[in-house]
Design goal:
Elements (H helix, E strand, L loop, with lengths): L1 E16 L3 H10 L2 E16 L3 E6 L5 H8 L7 E6 L8 H5 L2 E5 L11 H12 L3 H15 L14 H12 L6 E5 L7 H18 L2 E5 L3 H7 L2 E6 L2 E7 H8 L3 E7 L5 H7 L5 E5 L5 E6 L5 H11 L2 E8 L2 H11 L6
Parallel strand pairs: 3-7, 3-8, 5-6, 6-7
Antiparallel strand pairs: 1-2, 1-4, 8-9, 10-12, 10-13, 11-12
Amino acid sequence: MNAIEVRELRKEFKSYSSRSGLKGAFRDLLTRNYKILAAVDNISFEVKKGEMVGYIGENGAGKSTTIKMLTGILTPSAGEVIVNGMNPHKERERFVRTIGVVFGQRSQLWWDIAVQESFRLLKKVYNIPDEQYEPHIKEIIETLDLEPLLDKPVRKLSLGQRMRCELAAALIHNPPLLFLDEPTIGLDVLVKLKIREFLKKINERFNTTILLTTHDLSDIEALCERVIMLDEGKIIYDGSLADLRGNWGQGKEIQFQFDEVVVKPKLMDVTEGLPVEWKQGEQENVWVAVVTKEEVVSQIISLVASQFKLSDMRINEVSTEEIIRNIYEEGVFYGK
C-alpha cells in the first residue's frame, strides 16, 4: 500500500500588479490586474510505505507548496491527494494524528516554557497513553541526546538544539509518515550526522515513511535511495539516486593544485578541443577540470602537467550536487 498518492495535483495563485500613475491607482481601487500562476503544475507521484524520498528543486520550484498540500495546510486548486488513506483536507482531525511535520523555519514548541513541558502538552494534544508515551519519549531523548535540554525554555536553545527538539516533538505520537522541510538548514556537521542517524533508525525500526525536502544534497545522499526533482512546478525526474548518477553523472573531476598563479584562459588554451570545463577550486591556486569523457582524463593530466608546476592532484567522481546543478543550468528536462 502507498503512503502518498498524488494525481494531477495543481495549485494556482493570483499574482496582482499595480497600474502606474494616479489614474492607475484609482482604477486599482475598483478592479485589479492579475494573472494566474501555477506553483504546482499537474504533478503525479506515489510514495510507498517505508520509503525515504528526497523531494528537491530550486527556490520557487514548488516543493514547499506541495508539502503544504500533502499536510492539509493548503487546499489544491485541482487534482487528488491521498495520504495515509485519507484526504488531508476533508479528514483533518483524524489525518493529523498520522503524520509528523518538521519545518526548518517554524516551531511547534512553546517558546517560553521548558522543552519537556512542550512534550507533555503534545502528549495531551495527541491523547497518548502513559504506557505508550514514557518508553517512546525516553528512547527519543536518549538517541537525540536531549537530556541536558529538557529544563530549558525553547527560546534559550541554539538552532541545532531546537531542531533536535522539533524532530522529537514531531515523533512523540510515533506517526507512520514524516514530512521534513529543510530540517538541517543552518546546522553544523555533527548535529546533521546525529539527525541523519536517528532518521535511519526510526525508518528501520518502525518502517516510517519519510519525505525530505532540502537544499543540502548530502542529506539526500545519506538517507534517500529515490529522488523527485521539481522545476517550475513540474516533475522533471522521478527515480533512484543511483540511476541519476549513472545516467547523468558520467565523467570525472580532476582537482589540480598549482605552485604558481594560473588563470582560466591559459588552462582553456592548453586543453582546447577537449571535453572539459574549468572551474575555480575552494583554495588558492586550485582549479578543477570537469571531464565528461573518462577516456581523455589521462590526456588532460599530461597536458596540464607539461605546462604548469603542480603541488598536488586528485581525481574524483562528479558529485551529485554538480550533476543536479548542471541539469538545472542547462535546462534539460528528464522524464520519469
